[in-house]
Write a structure and sequence with these properties.
The strands form 4 sheets. This protein has a 9-stranded mixed sheet, sandwiched between helices. A 6-stranded antiparallel sheet has the order 5-6-7-10-9-8, with helices on one face. Strands 4-11 form a two-stranded parallel ribbon. The chain has 2 domains: 241 residues, QueA-like; 75 residues, QueA-like (Thrombin, subunit H). By secondary structure, it is α/β, with parallel strands linked by helices. It is built from 7 helices and 19 strands. Helix 6 packs across helix 7. It is 19% helix and 30% strand.
């Protein structure tokens, strides 16, 4: 398939620049793949829209404040820590690139020394920091790494974090989960809907676009994940009992499908570079909750593999007609 098959027009006014005051007040579009019908709801209605015989699977990864902004001489500079390679070495995005040439040594905020070890073909830098505890340093000096299409400064950093975030490691939020509140979980529980948690640390792939015209030639960056044995057992039991597996977000989907073998989950931890696009044979996921995705992105390809590509793009056009908000802080869809 061609990259252009996943393009659509989106005027900038549709891109949500900040979260709503209340998380669960966002819109929720419900798509039925069988009837190709579309319904419009509010997110707080989700528990009523799900069958009681459902089980929701969440990604509990927590976003780290991975962006460092500082001065080099009289100019501004930025390091965005993407992935930890070893104790002191991280793979990073930087700007401006000319200030981060190979072998260069820099000082961040007058207190942290760093050295550029290597420049990749993609322009990423492998940077060695003098401290082995960069995560603690980031808690004091870093800021939330919101995507480049968000231009407003985030007033409340916790709003780029799910209410159930637990395990540090992501450089972007699993945004489908941003709509959930404690009340949502209480309402799910009242209906008897089971909830389970796994971990995938969202990485560089969220920010990098597809550069090949033939999408099958695209190489996905790997992301670290974990599905523990007890969670896999509970999910396998639920599946065998005929419960609907509802994956909250594309990151949960990537873990579940990466761990599926012959329709059953195998507990695993490690890295996945699974690339899901139309033609993919689904093994475990029955329904998904997801946001509206960037044109030509691997995330749009994934949802187009779950529901027919034309149906998804038609739904996106209907979303624009109904003034839905797009991307990270935008509205959601439930695909059944």
């Amino acid at each position: 398939m061609l990259l252009s098959d996943f393009d659509y027009s989106l005027p900038k006014e549709f891109i949500a620049q900040s979260p709503l005051t209340e998380r669960d007040q966002s819109k929720l579009m419900m798509l039925d793949r069988g009837t190709r019908s579309v319904e419009h709801h509010q997110f707080f209605e989700l528990p009523d829209l799900l069958d009681a015989n459902s089980i929701l699977v969440f990604n509990q990864s927590k976003v780290i404040p991975a962006r460092l902004e500082f001065k080099i001489g009289d100019g501004s500079a930025e390091i965005f820590l993407v992935r930890q390679i070893s104790e002191k070495i991280w793979e990073c995005m930087v700007k401006p690139g000319k200030k981060f040439e190979e072998a260069a040594e820099i000082t961040i905020n007058n207190d942290l020394k760093a050295k550029i070890l290597y420049v990749t073909e993609d322009g990423l830098r492998h940077i060695e920091f003098e401290t082995a505890d960069m995560r603690t340093y980031l808690q004091t000096h870093g800021s939330m790494p919101t995507p480049p299409y968000i231009h407003e400064k985030l007033k409340e950093p916790e709003r780029y974090q799910t209410v159930y975030a637990k395990t540090d490691g992501s450089v972007a939020a699993p945004t489908a989960g941003l709509h959930f509140t404690e009340k949502t979980f209480a309402d799910l529980s009242k209906k008897g809907i089971q909830t389970e948690f796994l971990t995938l640390h969202v990485g560089l792939g969220t920010f990098q676009g597809v550069k090949t015209d033939n999408i099958e030639a695209h190489t996905m960056h790997s992301e670290q994940f974990e599905l523990d044995e007890k969670t896999a057992e509970r999910l396998n039991r639920a599946k065998s009992e005929g419960k609907k597996i509802v994956a909250v977000g594309t990151t949960s989907i990537r873990v579940l499908e990466s761990c599926s073998e012959n329709g059953r989950l195998v507990p695993k931890s490690g890295e996945t570079d699974i690339f899901i696009y139309p033609g993919y044979k689904w093994q475990f996921v029955d329904q998904i909750i997801t946001n509206f995705h960037v044109p030509k992105s691997t995330l749009l390809m994934l949802v187009s593999a779950f529901a027919d590509r034309e149906f998804i793009l038609e739904a996106y056009e209907e979303a624009k007609q109904n003034h839905y908000r797009f991307f990270s802080f935008g509205d959601a869809m439930l695909i059944k």
